[in-house]
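TICKET #2291
ISSUE: user wants both folds in one file
ATTACHMENT 1:
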Amino acid sequence: MTADQIILDPLLPWPVVWAALALVLLAVILAAWRGLSGWWLRGLAGLALLAALLNPSLQEEERDPLTDIVVAVVDESASQRIGDRAEQAAAALARLEAEVATRPNTELRVARVGDAEGDGGSLVMGALAEAMAQEPQGRIAGVVMITDGRIHDVPSAPQLPAPLHTLLTGHQDDWDRRLVVKNAPAFGILDEELTLTIRIEDQGEAPTVDTVPLTIAVDGGAPMKFDVPVNEDMELPLVLPHGGMNVLQFETPESEGELTNRNNAAVVQINGVRDRLRVLLVSGEPHAGERTWRNLLKSDASVDLVHFTILRPPEKQDGVPVEELSLIAFPTYELFVEKLEDFDLVIFDRYRRQGILPNEYLQNVADYVTRGGAVLVAGGPEYASAESVYRSPLGDVLPGAPTARLIEEGFVPRLSELGQRHPVTEGLEDLAPQPTAEDGTPGWGRWFRQIDVTPSPDATSIMEGPENRPLLLLQRVGEGRAALLATDQSWLWDRGYEGGGPQLELLRRLAHWLMKEPELEEEALWVEPAGQTMRIIRRTLGEEVPPLTITGPDGTETVVELQQISPGRFELQWEAPEIGLYKLTDGEESTVIALGPTAPREFEQTIATGELLTPVVEPTNGGVLRIEDGLPTLRDVREGRPASGRGWIGITPREAYLTADIRILPLLPAWAFLLLSALLILGAWVREGRR
């Protein structure tokens, strides 16, 4: 198309032109005041001279018209996949595409927005700003956002040169139920009560109920069921059941009609730590390793040690009165009757029955183990004798019976086949001061004495001595655990004999296994998350593990196979498709893990609303329309006029163009203006001369 317009290019600066115009007006006024009949001809002559000074030209432009652009931003975040919102959005976009296709000189640009990285939510405004930056602002005729209104970057809305409209998905009568766990600590002290605040809140047009079911499961175990009030904060007192990571899963069942169950569950991971480890060490016959035990336990600031030691055996007769053997009476009754349950671990180091501790006290220790306590016996020659602690009520919980045989020869302790897999001794050979020999002999020093024992049916032998005889035995007894170290020579590792060995690590693991620390469980399944990547770890004493089923936040199940990386340890790196709560089970072990928050930001508020966008839409004269009320038509509106109404939305035509060619021609040559001016002055002179 062509467009013509007159342009001015003054021959003199504008101030001079305005001054000349003033002189012309003054001359015309003076002529009229004097009664000259040709005053108007004088004025026209002056205007002709002024026109010559303005140098008017005719500009002809060849213009290529540019299309108007309508920008559509489609929210495809997780909350837009609830119910039929995705279908509503697709229908709205199809209608908009059809409306734009029927309009001449109009194009549609579509920008789609998924979930932001991490838990950023719906960053629709950022996507809109990016889409607008790719187009000339002078061509944008309108913006249409297809969303549920749950946008998390509204303050980042760009300046809009045209009306903004929101087509809202969802339904007016939608409702949803959400489970929220507040003030959950990352750490908790064992045996001390901590408090969680739980709230189940209803959003939208929810049915009226007073209470709803709530289940609480610990470490994937059997859930406990409760009825809790709705829309009220409820304080839950909690005592952590064990050390290490405690995984608490809270869940309320999905109700008929609610939007989604993605926010009906929450996982809280609290690391249970012991305030102090309380150990009772009972030392019998004095020997070279006794101080090693004491130094080992006292070196740990988190250990409260009570050391009961027998420095003078009863058979020693030296005439010293009994009342002069000690400054105070040792509180055996308080330790073995009243305060026994306060200890986390009881250690008997080369203790023999000498009548100092009656059988009733030892029976108390056996009962303490059965109820969940832990006992460790480090035996020397006395364990093989008639005075062995095994031949007391404590023998019922010990994992090995002495045969009365004493093996006294140098030997290098070895891990048994199960010991290669057991978490107490797994990888222990890698901690030896010297590398493993070619014949498989571990690179640590020798011991020189072992008590021959017969393992009980439920015992597990994880270390062996000469003739593959059991050296370190473990056993579960009722709710508790017991261990037997059938030698009194482990102190040689601590003293560095022949290079020594990892005594500290061995005894640390042994103590943690006895106290049921989760990281030392023989059969365990856990996950180490890193972003959306899971490192799945399965430990077992078996040769293989069954396939693992992973249930995602949306209920989809994925079956994977774990790969063996070392004896008894299977792992897999698995990339999760989205953040949320995942449940893992192989039929034997189960666990749950939350990648990101259990209920992502997209599911904190799920009811569709236009309230968040109203402050951005209103200044542009746009509108917020619900798709369920009908898909709107598209109209042209003038700039500044209301751009939405019942069943329609408006865009502002921009009439943008691209100039292809420009031609500039003077209206008249300069001599023509001078000739015209002269003729007008002559006419004025002739007219005035006739008077």
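ATTACHMENT 2:
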Amino acid sequence: MIPQKRFSGFDRISPGRWCAAALMLAAMAATSFSQTPARRPMTFDDMMKMRRLGDIDVSPDGRWVLFSATDVDLAKNTRTPHLWLVPTAGGKSRALMEWMAGENGGRFSSDGKEILFESGREGGEQIWLASFDTATGTMGEAHRLTHLSTETDGAIWSPDGGQILFTSAVYPDCNDDGCNKARDEERAESKVKARIFTHLLYRHWDVFTGDKRSHLFLVDADGGTPRDLNAGDEHDVPTFSLGGPTGYAFSPDGREIAYEEKKVDDPALSTNSDIFTLRLDDANAKPVKISTSLGGDFTPRYSPDGKYIAWRSQRRAGYESDRFRLVLYDRATKQLKDMLPGFDRWVDEFVWAPDSQRIYFAAGDAGEEPVYMVKLPGAAMQLTTNGAFGDLHVTADGKALIASRMEVTTPAEVVRIARDRPDAAYSAMGHDAVIGLNRDGPLPLYHSAVDAVTHLNDALLAQLDMPKMESFWFPSIDRVKVQGFLIKPPGFDAAKKYPVKFLIHGGPQGAWGDEWSYRWNAELFAASGYVVVMINPRGSTGYGQTFVDGVNGDWGGKPYIDLMRGLDYAELHSSFIDKSHECALGASYGGYMADWILGHTHRFKCIVTHDGMFNTESAYGTTDELWFNEWEFKGTPWTNRALYRRWSPMLAETNFRTPTLVVHSQLDYRLDVSEGYQLFDTLQRMKVPSKMLYFPDEGHWILKPQNSELWYRTVNDWVDQWTKVQ
């Protein structure tokens, strides 16, 4: 739409001049439209050119947002993060530095006059410090603080800015860095590369765990030798995380820290991580466990007034996908309270308000990730809609939140969420309306204004035709309503028929939704002339814990029915879908389901299965986190073999007919590469058209730019080969 221009005294124009003016405006509009370049479908190269938002921080005076953004160089096969700065109110973003090695993890000191960050500029990630001018937003010359051979990660300031807390992976029996360095050098120089295992979890995700453990270290901001706060501890501190919120925090007075640790005898069988506190002003102090749950406890955060510690907690032992509750620990009474007993969604992250009376949190709900607010003692409301929010920060005056936000059509950007006196909304709705949280109903919604702070990819996105995602609901087995999503191809013509890419998410406790992805980008899949259909079957998050639990022990049962009925519904209500030319694609649990589909229906023209479970029994013997398989299949293969075999895709091999592309990676220790080999060997032996794409240098995800390019090209070529009408 062309913006309307307001003319002074326009109502006094004569009829003749009115016609002339109208013709002139029409010509101007036509010229403007003709000069607007037509949007085009997104390409893989476009996606690689997009700047990727990393973590963010807000200056104590609320004037500046510090964030990292990663640039991808496809030709050099690199991804390099850099620190950027932008006014909180919005404006031009600018890079603070652009070292060749990159830099990330930027954090303001409590007075805003210094910035810490981490960089491998001089070989190995270390902590660096630089002065910062809060008035001009300029940074001084950076100097290196740490010189550890074991490197650093996750650095945060103490409240007074005098110390820095960080993690480093060390040998528990080493007392200093010299010992760690000598041990590493000895191993690197040895001609013998054999390993001896004496415990489970000897490899995890994409690395062999070895003898090192992550420990917390404390170092003075003025320099000196870092102090190992977990000396001798043979467990990881904090608990291993795939990139979630930091698992440790300072108390407001800086005299204590709280952290998460999985202090169990066999970490491969247990999900029980706990919250510990440790006094820093007593050299002889011992950690004190303050959590009581049998499940996982994560992300401790002190209230600004120091009275409470909040964290995310799971009740059930051995279940990594139990509901993440928000609990509150009173430091004086040592009592624990569930802040939202009736809120049936996962609390994914949270942040305290400056007044210690409110907590803001993000939680997945029906394909979105809104921001909510809970007011002590437990009244809550929803503040945002549309898109996925994360990395929450509250400005010091409490008047706004700074966060990241993404949609399926837009990579993550920094946004400002106005708090805008939601307390008034509490009064207007009444206490009972707010506190009466019901598992069958939503929280009260109070719309907060959301404004963009950064515009990292606006120029490129303005060139691209990326259709909006459409949501639909359908009835499935047991009268359960299930949600699905559909994306039409660019340049959509309702009179035409389009082939379908049917995407199946992983987890299984995951979800499709209004989120951007670089690994499985729904818009890029649609860009080559496809309708993309995505269903959130039982097991998906964002629909209540009962729905999540619906996949347990039933991997190929109701979730499979949900998927097929969802596709049936999309076909029935979308005349433009060519249901004779559809391909099913999935990774992880989605890969398992693709394997299951291979033996249980012939409705698809092709299948793409990435890092899936093909043989449930061998997958148990080659995975790392055994608690996962034992929960999902209700025991071990020798205690419940019937269930493992019931849901094993391998046992339907005589029904395999659909052309299948198998993708697997050598460094995937969650679902070992042997699962891919077994499937491909079976397909070849059964004379089913098949191909295998093998990555020797990737884990469960394809992360290297050129490997990603090959992945998208191979996958899309395979789908085109079998579904595009010639």
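RESOLUTION: both attachments delivered.
EXTRA DETAIL ON ATTACHMENT 2: The longest strand covers residues 577-587.
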